[in-house]
């Protein structure tokens, strides 16, 4: 309520926990609110409009590991969904003006984007990029904010997720795919709407979305190892030599100069030495091999945590809030970057 008092001009929307029954609320309405089945979000009153329509952006996100944490997004495209009725003149009673529902307006019917999408065969993401550039705007501002938002949101819930995973004997025999939904204002500021744990991947309502959904699934299954380049018939009896053909200890070896030094030969105390072969525990070696396989099989997926790396030394403050496992993994990715630019 303090935020409401400090921002008297703001409006809000009240949403049911099942993401149904959305209501436009003002300051007075919220002070009378008394329910445990809803949550409140600030209403973005100056949304970016395309052909007069408000829209949201959905980003398919994959968590492949919790301890340490690895997060990817499907980077080949995004899903754009438009409100079926133009935003202005605004009417809070008409949800079709500002809420994206099941019967949203698809991109191929949006006048300002249909040529990019229908005639030039760009995806939704690149159609949006081309449109924004034609208006003198830089779309990279949107995508950078989206990646930051997903990364920070999941990191803020990392311990909660880990508490759930700890109930199981094996912590790494899983993956999770979700969709983060965002809206953008006219200044290209990005706002997180929600994270959908079970995003709709059915193209029954909008058949042209089938290709997007298929590519999301194809790249996700490749990333997590459900789909392999080797024939399935060879997997049950695959020998150690065949496993090492995919990834071996040599593929995860880093810091050649440091690991050959007397410091690392005699001790594993140094943070650098901890990544030398003789200092790696079985579990650490296993998750680094998983990270290597993911990198090789990521296809159109992009790793956003650990984030993109630099060849410059890692500032201590970057790692200080991470768990020991995340710190070690972060240093490993950076050390791979030092050896090969494709890992940066």
Automatic annotation (TrEMBL):
InterPro entries: TTL/TTLL_fam, Tubulin_polyglutamylase. SUPFAM superfamilies: Glutathione synthetase ATP-binding domain-like. Signal peptide: none annotated. Pfam families: TTL (PF03133). Gene3D superfamilies: ATP-grasp fold, B domain. This is Uncharacterized protein.
